[in-house]
Specification:
about 70% helix
């Protein structure tokens, strides 16, 4: 297992230690590892959906099924002058 050293402000360190203890983590390090796992899980869940959406738009565009609105019409609908 690799390691990463991270410096955090004293108040965050204290909060991590207190939260880890309150939530019955074996150590503050395990709490941090769990936080990192959750962040990575959220990030990787979003990415495939975005790729799927981009591919769907690309396929529609290729088939000529993509309806677009001219920029000047978009500006007008938004009430913005170029």
């Amino acid at each position: 297992m690799g390691s990463i050293n991270v410096r955090v402000p004293d108040d965050q360190k204290k909060q991590i230690e207190e939260t880890a203890e309150k939530e019955n983590y074996p150590s503050p390090s395990e709490w941090v590892r769990e936080a990192i796992r959750e962040k990575l899980k959220r990030e990787t869940k979003l990415y495939p959906k975005e790729v799927e959406r981009i591919l769907e738009v690309w396929e529609k565009e290729k088939k000529g099924e993509l309806e677009t609105t001219p920029a000047d019409e978009v500006w007008e609908n938004l009430g913005i002058k170029e």
